[in-house]
Amino acid sequence: MNLAAIHAQQQIPSPKNVKVLQNGSSVLVRVIADKGGGQYEGSVAGVRVNLRSQNPLKPGDVFTATVNLKNGKIEVSPKTESGITFTSGKLIFENAGAAHLENLLNSLGLPADEINKHLAMQFKQLEMKFDGSLLRKLRGLSVRFNGKEKSAGEIASILKQKGIEPDGELINALLSLLYDEQAGEDSTDKKKDQILKIINHKNGWIFLPYEIVRAGNEVLGTGVIRLLFDSANQLKKTNFNVKLNQKEYIFNLDFEKKHLSKLMANISPEPSEAEKEEFISALQKKLLPFGKPETSWAEKEDVEGSGCDSEELLMVGGMV
To answer: Which terminus of the chain, N or C, has fewer Cβ atoms within 10 Å?
Structure first.
């Protein structure tokens, strides 16, 4: 098996239009040389690979391979119908992690502070290109909301991904709606419906605020269901929270090929370690019919809102 570690020292030639690989996306493989006998030399994002093909190839030919995330690594496999294989198995790239993210931000001329890191991970989750000028603009909007910079940055990015120009008024209205804050006279059902109609009009994050009500219209709990659909209209992630009995429960569910693959959870105020283990154990038992997805406790900051801080930054050589 080919193993190629991608390190932060690999510089990105251009600070704009950096494409981030997503799980299930495609990457180009280029044929460099014909070695005879159905054997070829190729290149994947600058990494030399040996290929075998049932069909004749020639230098300069390009075909696609599929990207899969497994255990924090990027696995690249030629599409089955191509008749092409890597001679030593699937090509694996190590996930470079936080150092790579800092290197990326620095290459864009941006400080690698917590706000920019959070915005970058939100861009990654939304399959947006890393553009230094756009990151800088959204950061400028975020810092207007003292103490809520990360949430404001998420909302600004989500609006931009949907083709909606973010502004302070709309961001403030969505903060109030999604985080159950007081919004004064604007906090009417009609106003909420108008805001949701604006933001839920296309794929990306869809927001569904809800209430738990019993007879007599007594509100027992509130929360927001967040659904993330990718560019192929496939459900990628479901995040939801519920505030009930003076506690807040947060759940992040990741899906791969329509199946639940991972679940992270948090309760605040934070329970004891024994209570956490008991809670996760109970969840695991409940999820047995769904194929034993990876289930774990997470810090609140990693799962609240869009949960983008728990994303893996998947980049091959920084640029494809």
So the answer is: N
Residues 127-146 have pLDDT tens digits of 888 889 999 999 999 999 99
Q: What pLDDT was estimated at residue 12? A: 33
Beta strands in the chain (DSSP E): 3-5, 26-36, 39-44, 47-53, 62-70, 73-78, 84-86, 91-94, 205-214, 218-229, 235-244, 247-256, 259-268, 294-297
**Residue 185: its pLDDT value, please?**
44
Distance, CA of 47 to CA of 112 (rounded, Å): 27
Measured in residues, the chain has a length of 320
Q: Is residue 15 a contact partner of residue 109, using CB atoms and an 8 Å limit?
A: yes
The reported pLDDT for the residue numbered 2 is: 29
Element (DSSP H or E) covering residue 289: none
Mean pLDDT of all residues belonging to the chain: 80
Give every CB contact of residue 230 below 8 A, 6+ residues apart in sequence: 22, 24, 127, 203, 236
Give the span between the Cα atoms of 170 and 159, in whole angstroms. 9
Angle at 261 between CA 208 and CA 299, to 5 degrees: 70
Q: What residues pair up with 41 in beta bridges, in sequence order?
A: 33, 50
> In the sheet that 218-229 helps form, which strands lie side by side, from edge to edge?
205-214, 218-229, 235-244, 247-256, 259-268, 294-297
Ranges of residues in the chain whose predicted pLDDT is under 50: 1-19, 95, 182-186, 316-320
